[in-house]
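Contributing new records

If you add data, match the layout below exactly. Sequence lines come first and carry their own label; structure lines follow with theirs. Keep one chain per record. Anything else will be rejected by the validation script.
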Amino acid sequence: QPNSQPIARFHGRFRQKIDDKGRVSLPAIFRRAVPAEGENGTLILREGPDGYLQAVSVQEWESRIERLSEAQPSKGKDGRWRRRKLVGSVVPASIDDKGRFTIPRELLDAAGIGRDCLILGVDRAIEIWNPDRFASATEGEDADLGDISQRLFL
């Protein structure tokens, strides 16, 4: 395997502020997990399926594109349009020396994110939510974590 760097894994929940330029600080624990692309690192941003934004490391994105190519060849008109929508809509975001990255306004608007956001580590991805949208989305959700919790923590 050409890139032997381990895949970044993220965990935790953090409330962050977004400045007027769309910059948000990546929690320090996440910064340590992002494989360095250059000095600070880069995240790949995209709209998530449930009204949030998703960020992944460059290595994770490349792995996803490889899996997509194997599972969904871009043959035919539908395949080409699907690939354009999935791949053409991502945005690279460099992490600056203060640990911040910029989220483009169109992505913030699509996710309904204003000044505050909730950043969740979800294994190989980071989810960036409007806090109220996250609360509404998870209201009434009562996932049965018993079996998983036992395997993870006991």
